[in-house]
Amino acid sequence: MPRTKRLIAESGIYHIVCRGNNRGKIFKEKKDYEHYLYLLKSLKEDHKFKLYHYCLMPNHVHLMLETTKNTNLPKLMKQINLSYYFYFRRRYKYYGHFWQGRYKSMLISKDEYLLMCGRYIENNPIKAKMVRKAEKYPWSSYSVYGLGIKNELVDKDPLYKTIGRDKRNREKNYGEFLKEGVKINFNNRFLGGESFIKEMEKRFGVKNIEKGPGRPRKPQKN
Fold first, then answer.
1. Is 162 helix (H, G, I), strand (E, B) or coil?
2. Residue 100 in 3-state DSSP?
3. CATH superfamily of 13-204
4. pLDDT for 128-165, tens place per residue?
5. Integer Cα distance of 176 and 198 in angstroms
């Protein structure tokens, strides 16, 4: 079966997912999560990407990042996946397939769909019933948006300032926004409104596999 064509824009925003082989654990201890984040941070300077949201789950990784003309996304993902695999192999004497095939990537429109995808990413630990509240999970970007904690790895979501009149208000609204939850179909190549999807289909010469969800409801401003 032929591989799905990789869609690479000179600059764009991607939701990226990497899974452990056979749903195996890729993070076992605190140090493993810390090392993966260290790798991400060390590669930001070379690849000039912005990281808006992330969540490291025990057996998979979610990243939302924006590339620039200086970002080589396939090379970036190859570097981080190989580097982390070698680290894991040394630490746990692991051999064999580590990642489940290639990473998945979905192009996202630069509008409210960013926050929609961001809340999906940060809602993962709650959905998996690992924690009851997002702030209780230490390996995601939620604390940046819901608690106002500074994280040098994270670049603020461009839409974040639109959800409240001040810092405290935005944090409160984001917390409420996250509770609503959202579903995303990973068979899709694009996430956005109808006009964005049509534009991307024409640009890349491929069809979005299935229709995406309806336009997300914007969080209320207080």
1. helix
2. coil
3. Transposase IS200-like (3.30.70.1290)
4. 999 999 999 999 999 999 999 999 999 999 999 999 99
5. 32
Closest of 107, 18, 121, 123 to residue 61, by C-alpha: 18
Q: What is the mean pLDDT of the chain?
A: 87
φ, ψ (nearest 5 deg) of residue 83? -60, -45
Q: Amino acid letter at 178?
A: L
**Which residue type is seen at 180?**
E
Residue whose tokens read 């690992």: 130
Which residues have C-beta within 8 Å of that of residue 4, sequence separation ≥ 6? none
What is the spatial distance between Cα 27 and Cα 135, in angstroms, rounded to a whole number?
19
How large is the greatest C-alpha to C-alpha distance in the chain, in angstroms? 53
The helix (run of H) or strand (run of E) holding residue 180 is none
pLDDT digits (tens, 9 = 90+) for 109-138: 988 888 889 989 999 999 999 999 999 999
Q: Which amino acid is at 58?
A: P
Structure token digits, residue 103: 């990473």
Q: What is the CA radius of gyration of the chain?
A: 17
Whether the CB-CB separation of 12 and 67 falls below 8 Å is answered with yes
Phi, psi of 115 (to 5 degrees): -65, -35
Domain boundaries, the chain: 13-204
> Which tokens belong to 155?
């670049």
Place of tokens 């579903």: 183
N- to C-terminal Cα distance for the chain?
51
The continuous run of DSSP H or E covering 64 comes out as strand 60-66
